[in-house]
Design goal:
Distance between the termini: 72 Å
Radius of gyration: 36 Å
Shape: globular
Structural class: alpha+beta
Number of helices: 34
Number of strands: 73
Strand content: 25-35%
Oligomer: single chain
Low-confidence stretches: 1-24, 707-712
Helix content: 10-25%
Strand order of the largest sheet: 17-16-15-14-18-19-20-21
């Protein structure tokens, strides 16, 4: 089988000289050098051939061709139009051939499957290079199907054919050069193929008869002895690939004389395989055995290679050994973000075929990591060097990968050979663990130190002598009692220079909860909450210095003086330890001479000097802080994120952190406020925070799908492929000199659950960066690897510390941690081009000038060390002027801006930048120098008048977004009166409106100005070209009763509807959660003017503000509008909203009238809880049987709001019209809050008992645990468990991304532990976090509201109840009490049967989401149908707004069963479309409505309706890869009248993973009579 390419290119392949395989004396390596031809998305493929008849191949990609062999001169074929990367190109494949026989190669192309093939005629010698002349185009054949068509000489005639699928039939198209515009189709099969989007097609001789056969995913079509008359070719069934792959080949892989088959397995997912031909049966003499080359997990490939979307494959002898190798890779974004690992690297691999005595090996070599392969890759010699090159095109543009060959030393050769993956294990010795690690070709891992030399390393650093200082955390995870800490700081030394640190010295012990470590300035800097300490060792003898003579003992005001070593100084205290793995950590010296560190979000700190008052402390509960070692200053550098445990700086001093749980990568700007994992920003007027720069995640799907906090995870395969999980630790931006250049300025981080090191690279955009995923750098292959941090050292190699424990984070039991383990590894590059070993030196012994000279070193370790040593010498008065002069010389003379920056930072740290020099820096031609000039000027938060003038000018005129970002950051460090002009100039840059950072950083600096001068701030807003900042200024003003007038004045002064809308929207947002807002005098005339607006939206928004100001005049009109069933729905919805916000006490009748409309029903039911109206309860109960599940929950919540309506509810339960199980234990807990004895007795009588003693609860837990054995839990119906969860738990809790956010997200909890689940369900108030304690609010109108307080303003509280968010005026509160009870009530299992309890508990403990499926359809074995069912395909269609609906036979889908082997298949519709079927009801009664729907990869989310009313919640019909049913979905019971009704289906959308086909399949409907229930 030939490589898939045009015949004109085959000569280039045939001319290649074979390269001898490597021998003991000949070590040859093959690499590929990428040349990008264009970065535009123009086509899904690329090809090559000689177009200009110069004897050299040219490259074709969509509308362009490039002249070979340089491929720098570009020509147009047809007008180029960049394609939409969110869609697909109109050009997929192109083949090069002289189709019209004129001696010039033409092109035939086809686009999206099903589109026609078109021929572009080469214009020939006169016009081939004319830029004004496009090629003539002709359509040659309609309907080219299959996504891997082949252009090859299939039937052995004089020219190639186009092999594809056409209208469901496989075949080939031929052409006559004399009539090239009309091609002839020859079908060779029946309608057996998927059309047009089939996957998997190839050509090759399967049976050895010298005739080429056609191979596709389900088998092969045997070419007959003659193709005259277009006979149908014999089909041989063998399912090579289910969903279908890409190009398929017949080739003798194993050398046994018969051809095997090579194919990718899923074009849009995983897999490449070869199928060994073996002898079959008499009926099928040829059979195959599948051998996976690349699967869906790393363990499927011996070398651990894993990628997705192999949508094109080529077969070619890459290394000249006579055996054909596989070339393939990732078709980047083949299904956009719907494919697994869609955002992983766009790799290209070639797999070397090796035949050994032990079998076949495919050795993987990465050809490239940036280009991807598109859907058409070609291999051949395009540059005349007799080596096969690779040509690709796709979403990443067009590229040629030029093949290079080099002969290297044996050491270099072995270093870069792919190594077989090591199986995951645990419990390895330190030496075994190092040996088991997988790193890129050319790198080696060595053990530097392991137990017993090091234990529990939580932080480390390297000193100028190359020694490693380690903080050992024996006390974690709990802080020890004062004086009983066991943590240590030890020094490890490599005494013989062999890379192994064999000497251990304890510097200090007895520390308590140590978490941070750095050295410098004659001592050690230690973080051990609540302290940031300095432990001096001024003489460098590795022994802490004792108290200074004459000192008066321990510092005053310390909380735990016993935990402070003698002689140590507590620099700051107040660091929290509520969450002991989120304390101060990751110490590092910044380029500006400050000590930087991180802090987590769930540890609440108030940092200050010992004994400082609370007002003199700084709040910190997530972010980056810094401390100045000589000025004794502490600052929060930036606020937010989650639990950062690593910060570092790139070559230009940009700070980046890594973090956990929420996105992992952040560009930290001074004064920035970043997306928080939880809690609120200290400044309540932040309004919006800065989001991650990462364009990817290191896990697949939602974090809840795999993150089990408190449980040691084995990450799912797809998450491992994506990077390993959400938990990151450590950060290192590589600036050393050992690794290859490609790693410089990339950030490395440990992935705790993925047992590896992730890498990200940065692309600059605007003022900031996009963080792209780079290939994982190190795979530990060990479940116990717990990397904490990593740093490059003096030789440029990297050291990393490994906690090494079977437990990860969130395990608070100190007994489970292994205190004996700990490792330090060294990773070094030793491959081709590795730098020579540098002689060791001690910078401490260098002169000042020598330290200055180190600023020119490539390895930034030497620069940082030199800077700190110079800073120490300056602090002690020992610095020479020569060093300062040398640094200024570097700044003045270096052409490298990074060297200039290094010198500048050090000069600043030394205090050697005067005003003149500072002004020079601000005038620099480089934006980063100007930017740093700004930051360094504002270090003391003061600027001179000339500098201020310069900054204002820069804000107006500087072309760099980076500089403008630093100016925006500087606002927060300036006095308020100096900010106005600077801010105004920055707000004039409309080009910054969509910048990732600038609008928000600007807002943080502008915000205090609003209250300083509201009118002047409104002028800023009106002139601002950054709409976001303008909006926030208005919102901030409207947040204050005093400043809102300034916003109203703007309203009154403009007639521009856009401006009016902006101001009204922001006032409305500012009023949320507030009541009784005083109406300013300015509002009356402004309102009257707004009501005259020609824009109805302005009038409506003005009405809403008027209501918020307490203007009741419009409420009667709103009541009438709401009650008017003929009024437009949107107007009625608005009226309801205004009635609720206006707290209209006369609205009950109108709200009851709204119950008749399904779109208004739920909010109307919730609003009726406000009114003590005797007509409300009967009205709700009369509708109860027709309500959907969510509406029923709303109804119950409204009915339990008062004792009177609760009694009416219990009457209905006793009558059987409301199921007892619809009343949640939460409702009962709220009712008990009324302390009404008669009501409490009725609860016990009708619903049951909820109270239990502590002893009772323990007995209950034991009883359930005994019943829920592992064997019994295995029998659970998980889908039913999910349904029960939706009814019982989802109103409050989120699980797998679904449900409410009242209680904690339980996805990541310790759900694998049965004790944990039972204790939390049966005794939920045993341990209650302060954020989840219930507040009981008794109101003056007799209601009791129970929930969580979400927000509190001066006038109201906002309470989140189980089904609503309610704003309560403080003036209406009679009593408010914070309960000791959890919002989660007791007794939740009381209303469930034992089987239901089993199903719910099993679902809660399940690691991944399960599909909502009902029981299997009760299909009669004799009839093949469900008794009493109305078959979907037989139902009359009475309404349809889109698509087609028809019968589809389902007998071919074997993974499930369909009633009657048929269903009604609705296709071609989209979101919002409806299908209505006639449903005949024989007699009136109460029925369960049973529905069975289909599920498949391209099915949508559908809402089932009965007479327009929703039945239950929307059903997600996505399933992959199999086609199955939902099982029996039961809706009811509900009262249905006799006669014809409408069963409806409305498409809501589609699962994010689904192919967006939005299809719906209905198997059957069945009405089951239902008796009244109790």
């Amino acid at each position: 089988m030939m490589t898939r390419c045009s015949f004109i290119c085959l000569w280039t392949c045939a001319a290649i000289t074979l390269i001898n395989p490597a021998t003991a004396q000949d070590f040859t390596v093959h690499t590929f050098e990428r040349q990008q031809l264009t970065d535009e998305y123009l086509s899904e493929g690329a090809n090559f051939g000689d177009l200009n008849k110069d004897g050299r191949p040219d490259i074709v990609h969509g509308p362009y061709w490039w002249e070979g062999p340089e491929f720098t001169k570009q020509h147009e074929i047809y007008p180029p139009v960049p394609q939409n990367r969110k869609g697909y190109s109109n050009n997929f494949f192109t083949w090069v051939y002289d189709f019209n026989g004129d001696g010039w190669n033409d092109l035939v192309s086809c686009g999206l499957p099903g589109s026609p093939a078109v021929m572009y005629v080469n214009p020939g010698a006169d016009k081939i290079g004319d830029p004004k002349h496009h090629w003539t185009v002709h359509k040659v054949l309609d309907g080219i199907g299959n996504e891997s068509p082949q252009f090859v000489n299939l039937v052995g005639d004089e020219r190639p054919e186009l092999v594809c699928n056409h209208l469901g039939k496989f075949g080939y198209a031929t052409f006559d050069p004399k009539q090239p515009n009309t091609w002839v189709w020859h079908a060779i099969s029946g309608e057996v193929g998927q059309y047009p989007f089939g996957h998997g097609l190839g050509v090759g001789d399967i049976n050895g008869d010298k005739r080429l056969d056609v191979i596709y995913k389900d088998g092969w079509l045997e070419q007959p002895t003659s193709v005259e008359g277009d006979p149908e070719w014999k089909f041989h069934k063998y399912v090579f690939t289910g969903p279908g792959g890409a190009d398929m080949f017949a080739y003798d892989v194993d050398g046994d004389g018969d051809n095997d088959v090579i194919s990718s397995l899923q074009a849009h997912a995983f897999g490449v395989a070869w199928f060994e031909q073996v002898k079959g049966s008499n009926d099928s003499p040829i059979d195959f055995v599948k051998h996976v080359i690349v699967g869906d997990k790393t363990t499927d490939n011996p070398y651990g290679v894993l990628f997705t979307e192999p949508h094109t494959v080529a077969l070619h002898d890459i290394d000249g050994d006579g055996l054909k190798d596989i070339v393939t890779g990732k078709t980047y974004w083949s299904h956009h973000d719907r494919s697994p690992m869609w955002d992983a690297g766009a790799v290209v691999y070639w797999f070397k075929l090796v035949r050994t005595k032990d079998g076949i090996d495919w050795v993987p070599f990465k050809a490239d990591g940036e280009s991807g392969v598109g859907r058409e890759l070609m291999v051949g010699d395009v540059d005349g060097d007799k080596l096969p090159d690779i040509v690709v095109g796709g979403m990443k543009g067009a590229h040629v990968l030029r093949h290079k060959v080099a002969r290297v030393s044996e050491k270099e050769f072995k270093a870069i050979q792919p190594k077989k993956a090591v199986a995951m294990a645990n419990g390895r010795t330190p030496e075994e663990a190092a040996a088991a690690m997988t790193v890129p070709e050319g790198f080696q891992v060595k053990l530097s130190a392991g137990e017993p030399l090091v234990h529990q390393p939580i932080a480390f650093t390297l000193d100028p002598r190359g020694r490693i200082w380690v903080a050992e955390a024996y006390t974690y995870p709990n802080r020890a009692k004062a004086g009983e800490g066991k943590d240590k700081i030890v020094i490890l030394e490599d005494t013989d220079g062999d890379g192994t640190f064999e000497k251990r010295k304890v510097f200090i012990e007895g520390l308590n909860l140590v978490s941070g470590l750095e050295i410098g300035f004659g001592g050690v800097w230690v973080g051990a909450a609540p302290y940031l300490m300095f432990i001096p060792d001024r003489n460098g003898d590795d022994i802490p210095d004792g108290p200074v003579a004459g000192s008066s003992g321990p510092q005053a005001g310390l909380m735990f003086p016993e935990d402070v070593p003698k002689g140590a100084t507590v620099l700051r205290d107040g660091f929290g330890w509520q969450d002991t793995h989120e304390t101060l950590n990751a110490f590092i010296w910044g380029p500006d001479g400050w000590l930087y560190g991180c802090h987590g979000v769930f540890t609440h700190s108030k940092v200050g000097k010992p004994g400082a008052a609370d007002a003199d402390r700084q709040g910190l509960n997530a972010g980056v802080w810094r401390y100045h070692p000589t000025r004794d200053l502490f600052e929060v550098f930036s606020h937010g994120t989650s639990n950062p445990w690593g910060v570092d700086f790139d070559d230009r001093g940009q700070a980046f952190i890594t973090a956990c749980v929420i996105p992992h990568l952040w560009h930290m700007i001074q004064g920035g406020r970043y997306h928080r994992q939880g809690g609120q920003h200290f400044n309540p007027y932040t309004f919006e925070d800065i989001k991650t720069i990462a364009d990817h995640l290191h896990y697949v799907g939602k974090i809840q799908d795999h993150a089990w906090w408190g449980h040691e995870p084995h990450a799912p395969t797809d998450t491992l492929a994506a990077g390993g999980g959400h938990a990151h630790c450590g950060a290192m931006i590589y600036l050393g000199d050992n690794f290859p250049a490609q790693y410089r300025n990339q950030i490395f981080m440990d992935n705790v659950h993925g047992n590896r090191i992730n890498v990200c690279k940065f692309d600059q955009t605007g003022s900031g960066f996009i963080g792209r995923r780079a290939p994982d750098f190190l795979i530990a292959n060990d479940h116990w690897f717990r990397g904490i941090n990593l740093k490059y050292g003096p030789d440029g190699s990297v050291y990393l510390i490994d906690w090494y424990d079977k437990n990860a984070c969130h395990r608070t039991n100190p007994e489970i941690w292994d205190r004996t383990n700990g490792r330090i590894y060294n990773v070094k590059y030793i491959g081709p081009g590795a730098p020579a070993e540098r002689p060791k030196s001690n910078p401490m012994q260098a002169t000042d000038q020598q330290l200055a000279a180190l600023h020119l070193e490539k390895n930034d370790w030497h620069v940082r060390t030199a800077r700190r040593l110079l800073q120490e010498r300056e602090a002690s008065g020992k610095l020479t002027n020569e060093a300062v002069d040398a640094l200024w010389k570097i700044y003045d003379s270096s052409d490298d801006v990074t060297r200039k920056l290094r010198a500048l930072w050090t000069l600043h740290a030394l205090g050697k930048i005067d005003d003149k020099r500072s002004m020079e820096v601000l005038k620099s031609s480089d934006p980063y120098l100007r930017s740093w000039g700004i930051q360094l000027e504002l270090e003391d938060q003061q600027v001179s008048k000339p500098v201020m003038t310069k900054l204002v000018y820069m804000a107006e005129s500087d072309p760099s977004a980076v500089v403008r970002l630093y100016l925006a950051s500087a606002l927060q460090r300036l006095p308020l009166d100096q900010r106005w002009e600077l801010a105004a100039n920055l707000l004039a840059h409309g080009e910054d409106a969509m910048d990732h950072n600038l609008p928000l950083v600007l807002w943080y600096g502008v915000e205090p100005l609003v209250m300083a001068d509201p009118a002047k701030a409104m002028t800023l807003a009106r002139n601002s070209k950054l709409e976001k900042v303008a909006r926030f200024i208005v919102r901030r003003a409207a947040s204050s009763n005093e400043a809102v007038t300034a916003a109203i004045d703007w309203l009154a002064s403009t007639t521009d509807a856009t401006q009016q809308t902006l101001v009204l929207d922001e006032i409305r947002l500012a009023f949320e959660g507030r009541v009784n807002i005083p109406q300013p005098a300015a509002w009356v005339p402004a309102y009257e003017a707004l009501l005259k607006s020609s824009d109805p939206a302005v009038r409506e928004k003005a009405d809403a503000i008027a209501v918020a100001f307490g203007d009741k005049r419009i409420l009667p009109r709103m009541r009438g509008l709401l009650a008017d069933a003929k009024a437009p729905l949107d107007q009625r919805q608005r009226a309801l909203d205004l009635i609720v916000k206006g707290r209209d006490m006369e609205a009950a009748p109108a709200l009851r009238a709204a119950l008749a409309d399904a779109s208004l029903r739920a909010p109307a039911i919730r609003a009726l809880a406000t009114f003590d109206d005797p007509a409300t309860s009967p009205a709700i109960l009369a509708l109860y049987s027709k309500l959907n599940d969510a509406e029923k929950r709303d109804a119950i919540n409204t009915l339990v709001a008062r004792p009177s309506s609760a009694n009416t509810l219990f009457d209905a339960i006793e009558k059987g019209t409301v199921p007892r199980t619809d009343v949640h234990a939460y409702h009962v807990q709220q009712l008990l809050g009324f302390k009404d004895e008669a009501l409490s007795k009725r609860i016990t009588s009708v619903w049951g008992e909820i109270r239990a003693t502590a002893k009772d609860k323990l007995e209950l837990i034991a009883k359930h645990k005994a019943a829920l054995t592992p064997a019994r839990l295995k029998t659970a119906d998980l889908s039913n468990g999910r349904r029960l969860y939706a009814k019982t738990c989802s109103a409050c809790h989120t699980l797998f991304g679904e449900g409410g956010k009242i209680g904690p997200d339980i996805t990541g909890s310790n759900r694998a532990n049965l004790d944990y689940i039972l204790e939390n369900i049966l005794d939920p108030s045993a341990i209650v976090g302060k954020d989840y304690r219930t507040t009981l609010v008794a109101l003056t109108d007799g209601r009791v509201i129970t929930g969580l307080i979400q927000k509190e303003t001066e006038s109201a509280i906002t309470v989140r109840t189980i089904n609503d968010t309610v704003v309560i005026a403080k003036s209406e509160i009679e009593e408010r009490k914070l309960s000791e009870l959890s919002l989660m009530p007791e007794g939740q299992l009381n209303q469930l049967t034992p089987d239901e309890q089993r199903d719910l508990i099993a679902y809660l403990g399940h690691p991944t989401q399960v599909a909502i499926r009902g029981p299997k359809s009760p299909i009669d074995s004799k009839t093949g149908k469900v008794p009493g069912a109305i078959e979907g395909e037989t139902m009359k269609i009475v309404g349809k707004t889109g698509g087609n609906a028809a019968s589809q036979a389902m007998g071919g889908f074997t993974k499930d069963r369909w009633s009657g082997n048929d269903h009604l298949w609705w296709t071609g519709a989209g979101p919002g479309a409806r299908l209505e079927l006639e449903l005949a009801v024989p007699s009136e009664g109460s029925y369960d409505v049973e529905v069975v729907l289909g599920m498949a990869v391209d099915y949508g989310i559908v809402q089932v309706l009965l007479d327009g009313e929703p039945l239950g919640e929307p059903v997600d019909c996505y399933n992959a890869p199999d086609v199955i049913t939902t099982g029996v979905l039961t809706f009811g019971p509900r009262q249905i009248t006799k006669g014809n009704h409408k069963l409806g289906f409305q498409i809501i959308g589609a699962n994010p993973k689904a192919v967006k086909g939005y299809m719906v399949g209905l198997d059957y409907v069945r009405l089951t009579p239902k008796a009244a229930v109790k």
